[in-house]
Amino acid sequence: MTDDAYLFLLDDAAAPLGVAPAAVGDLACMETPAVRAWLDAHGSTPTSPHLRLLPPEETAAVPDGAERLPVPLSDEELSRVRHQMAPEPLARVEEELLAYRDCADGRDNLIGRALAAGVPPHRIVELTGVDPATVTAAAGD
């Protein structure tokens, strides 16, 4: 397995392999001279329906003989690629997990602010559903 994702060109744009980079959103690698030169050399563009992207764990699926280019992706970009490749039911659950992560980020800071503002610990437990030990731990930070 490689650590790089792969850009590659498919002969059949209707093939359900990989994800179109344009569907993932902005990818830093698409603006690099190496990718631009590779696209130019193959007469392609970043929005071509033949251009696809696979994450590192899926690169064995790149068809033999397909024009390919390894590209590094940030963790966030790689997460977006994987999300685009997920079947719809899985993608919906992933969206919920991302929403949870975004809501939970800074939880202890919020609990600390609530305590500082005078919200009683038992009320924080009622409102958030967090364990009372979590509130106690946030009070100590």
Model description:
With 141 residues, the chain is mainly alpha-helical. The protein folds into two domains: 5-100, no CATH class; 106-140. The chain has seven helices and three strands; from the N terminus they run βααββααααα. It has helices at 21-24, 33-41, 75-85, 88-104, 107-117, 121-128, 132-140, and strands at residues 5-9, 51-54, 68-71. A three-stranded antiparallel β-sheet has the order 2-1-3, with helices on one face. α5 packs across α7 (132-140). The longest helix is centred in the last third of the chain and has 17 residues, at 88-104. The model has no long low-confidence stretch (mean pLDDT 89).
In short:
The protein has 141 residues and is mainly α.
What attributes characterize this protein structure?
141 residues; mainly alpha; 49% helix; 9% strand; elongated
Question: How do the helices and strands line up, and which of them pair or pack?
Answer:
Layout: E1 5-9, H1 21-24, H2 33-41, E2 51-54, E3 68-71, H3 75-85, H4 88-104, H5 107-117, H6 121-128, H7 132-140
Antiparallel strand pairs: 1-2, 1-3
Helix pairs in contact: 5-7
**What proportion of the residues is helical, as a percent range?**
40-55%
Largest sheet: spatial strand order: 2-1-3
Largest sheet: 3 strands, antiparallel
> Rg to the nearest angstrom?
22 Å
Q: Give me the secondary-structure category.
A: mainly alpha
Measured between the Cα atoms of the first and last residue, the distance is 42 Å
Number of domain modules: 2
**Uncertain stretches of 5 or more adjacent residues:** none
- H and E order: EHHEEHHHHH
Separate helix tally: 7
Strand content: 5-15%
Number of strands: 3
